[in-house]
Structures are given as C-alpha cells and as structure tokens.
Specification:
Elements: E1 17-19, E2 25-27, E3 31-32, H1 38-51, E4 55-57, H2 65-79, E5 87-92, H3 99-113, E6 118-123, H4 131-143, E7 147-153, H5 157-166, E8 173-177, H6 185-194, E9 197-201, H7 206-210, H8 213-222, H9 226-236, E10 240-241, H10 248-254, H11 264-271
Parallel strand pairs: 3-4, 4-5, 5-6, 6-7, 7-8, 8-9, 9-10
Antiparallel strand pairs: 1-2
Helix pairs in contact: 1-2, 2-3, 3-4, 8-9
C-alpha cells in the first residue's frame, strides 16, 4: 500500500509488537516527539504514520499534544487507517500528580490529542509523596476504559518496588533512559523479574554513542548507520524503543532496521559499552523531597501552542 499519492512507502515491519503483561500488543518501534513544536509534531507524526509507524509517544510536559493530535488525524486520513490501528502513549504531568488531579487531567489529555481513549498512560516521573496516589487514579482510569494500559517512567528499583507494594495493577511498562552507554542493568533485571516491559527513551544516546568506534565498526560491517545499529540492538534485546526525530528522512531511516541482524558477538560488544553512569539524579529535581511539596516542573511552550494547560 502506498498512501498519499505514493509519497511514502509503508514499512510493514513497524507493525510488529511486544506482548504486554495485560495482554495488550504494543509496537516494538515508535516515534518520540520530545523537544518538538506543535507544527513539527504534526508533520512528523503524520509522516510517520504514512511510513508505517503505529506507536506515537508524547507527554503534556512536551507541550505538543495538540500537534500530535493533529498529526494523528491527518495521518489516519491520508492512510485510511482507523484509530485502533495506532498505539498512542502520553504521560501524567508532574504538576497534575495526585489522585483527584490525575483523574481531572484525563479530559484535557483527550481533548488535546483529539482521542476518546489512550493506549498507554505513564506516570511521567515518580514525584515523591504523590506517585502512589497518581497510580491509584490511573488504575481507576484503566478499569473505566479510558486507557488500555498503564505504566511508569523514570522509576528506579526502589520506587518500582514501593509502587508494586501498593498497586493492584502491575505496570506494563517502565520507560527509562536506555542506550549503549546507559543500560540500566539493575532496572532491566527488576523489570524482567516483575514482568514489566522496559522501553527506551533517548535510545540513541546522543553524540557519544553515535560516534562510538565499536558501534561504527559494526555499522560499517552491515552497511548501516550507527543509529540503525543501536535501534537494532534494542530490538534484539527485547527493548521497545522510541527514537525521536523531527526530520522526515531520519524517521524513515530509523525504521530501516529489519533487513539485518546483529551477531551474538556484536550484541555483546555493545553490551560491554555500558558506562553505568547514573543520569537520573532524583535529588537534583526540585520536586524531590520527603513530603511531596514544592516540586516544580514546566510544560514546554512553543510559539504555536494553542492550548490551555490548566486542564
């Protein structure tokens, strides 16, 4: 199928999924839109859908849910797909955390995204003193059918265990910074033991990983870019991954990873690049304190943000 008058070729491999612990199927490779304006998010999401992407990841904090919603609508129109063909992830904003405020936030989320339900809703950050109540509200939204699955983001082992001690529903996902130089081995091991799928944000690891000589050597051997090798490494390790790009050509290139396979030795060579440098220093965040008060966070704002974030 060639949508939009032949502008894009659909990559059917992007429909491949991982089975989550609640039975929902989630695409293995998707598009992230952090640090993307509404206009760019609309263009990127629409193009990605037309190329075959089925997983779209955003958040209220990114300030572009409105653009993502417009991109979803345009992408569906151009491809003839239905809403059920997509898997849309967003996240509970730090400033909305708490039981009632999380429940109240869902209408604004759905309005901005122009959707009637969310496929995956995540706790964006474990705000101390609030994330348990936030989770209880998300469980209610899940049972009410407002969301198909609920999960967490940026939870270390201590906070995951605390959440599981209080949860009635086990998270399906923990979305963490995960790349060749930051492999979160303790978090990954805990998730695997608990039946929680790990999902990678910042999977390409920036310039240090993309310019790593070991990864470059592997890329040269396969005639691929270092970014493609890293994405392939994620997939072969069973990690769901959402590389971010606002460039249409790069979105297409990031998906061109299903025609080659890394050897066991190549996977192990990348595994050995882990520097285990903690990057999520919770005490550095203003919202991190014992009583849960005084946390601060801001929604990214853009010149093209036509949205009321009071909702």
């Amino acid at each position: 199928m060639v949508p939009n008058g032949g502008k894009y070729m659909i990559n059917e491999n992007l429909a491949t999924t991982e089975h989550l612990n609640n039975g929902v199927e989630m695409p293995k490779l998707g598009l992230g839109v952090w640090k993307t304006s509404n206009a760019n998010a609309k263009e990127s999401v629409s193009a990605a859908i037309q190329q075959g992407y089925r997983l779209i990841d955003t958040a209220k904090q990114y300030g572009n849910e409105t653009g993502v919603g417009e991109g979803i609508r345009e992408g569906l129109e151009k491809t003839g797909l239905n809403r059920k063909d997509l898997f849309v992830t967003t996240k509970v904003f730090n400033g909305d955390q708490g039981y009632q405020s999380t429940l109240d936030s869902i209408d604004g989320i759905l309005e901005r995204l122009q959707l009637t339900y969310i496929d995956l809703l995540l706790v964006h950050w474990p705000v101390d003193g609030k994330y348990i109540d936030t989770w209880k509200a998300m469980e209610k939204l899940y049972h009410a059918g407002k969301v198909r699955a609920i999960g967490i983001s940026n939870f270390d082992v201590e906070r995951m265990q605390d959440l599981l001690d209080h949860a009635d529903v086990t998270p399906v996902i923990n979305q963490m910074e995960f790349n060749p130089l930051q492999q979160q081995k303790d978090v990954l091991a805990f998730c695997q033991h608990a039946g929680i799928q790990l999902e990678a944000w910042s999977p390409l690891g920036g310039g240090d990983a993309l310019n790593n000589p070991t990864i470059q050597e592997i890329a040269d051997a396969h005639g691929k870019s270092t970014a493609q090798v890293i994405i392939r490494w994620d997939l072969q390790r069973g990690i769901i991954t959402i590389p971010k790009s606002a460039h249409i050509e790069r979105i297409e290139q990031n998906a061109d990873v299903f025609d080659f396979e890394l050897t066991d030795a190549e996977v192990e060579a990348i595994n050995n690049l882990d520097e285990a440098k903690p990057s999520l220093w919770y005490e550095d965040f203003a919202w991190h304190n014992e009583d849960g008060h005084g946390f601060k966070d801001n929604v990214d704002t853009w010149d093209d943000s036509p949205v009321n974030f009071d909702k």
